[in-house]
Amino acid sequence: MSLNPVKEQKIPCYPWATPTEEQKCLFDALSDEEQLKRVQEALKEGLESGISDQ
Question: pTM of the predicted model, to two decimals?
Answer without folding.
Answer: 0.69
